[in-house]
Amino acid sequence: MRLSAGSIPRSVVTGARTYVLVIACTAFSACGFFPVNAFSTSGIDVLERAPKPPPFDSTFEGCGEAGSQPDYKLNRLKNRVDEGAYVPVPWKLIARLPWPRRVGYRFRNQWSRSETDEVARLEGAAVELEGHLSDYKLEFPEPPNCYATDERRRDFHLWLSEGPYDVGKRSIVVELTPRVRVTHVGWTEERLAALVSTQARVRLRGWLMLDQMHPESIGWSRSSLWEVHPVMHIEWRTWRGAWVSLDSLSPASDSGYDRPPSMTSKTRR
Predict the structure, then answer these.
(1) Phi, psi of 256 (to 5 degrees)
(2) What is the pTM of this model?
(3) Structural domain tally of the chain?
């Protein structure tokens, strides 16, 4: 349905939860999807000043640097393998970053110049942040990975929360991509599960990126469309306060952590 102008607020009921979504269409552009969340520009200047080098991509097991259709521009950002000058930022800064409301579900070649410029002010900054891993999931076949079906060539989606045992809606998505995972043999599903079960504090380094294709998840399984994608480094803090690379040791080996009852991983978007 296309309208001449304006927007339509809609109430979506899922179980006992109700969310207000705004879908906007005009005669001159594609429909956008307006999730309702809390934006804040406090501290945003550190991201605006951060270097934003162009991504360095590579072909991976027959999949080109731009992946498969439809959004090659987005794929190139997801497929980068370069290191950056990582800027420490608080979890809340990423969780509350603004983005142009109309970009939801629109491919990047459909964005206006102002939308592109607004995202580019922040996107591509190399960031370091801390939190707790609330969940993880091996993702479905996706365009950046040329819709590969084997586990080796699929992403791991991780949900990073500010505090221990937070739920998905109070988390940001961070992703482990096949092109980076191939150089981190310690990033196994067993070690990710240990990060969830121990709730050891995690420190990540990676690239700030806006994934505009998941606005329906805001307030349900994520707090923002901004992601750290791809993640380049993962560390966890022992109960004595030392930071350890996930490549070298699993948190399951740290006897100082009391194990809670096993946590069941949920499928989320």
Answers:
(1) -75, -15
(2) 0.83
(3) 1
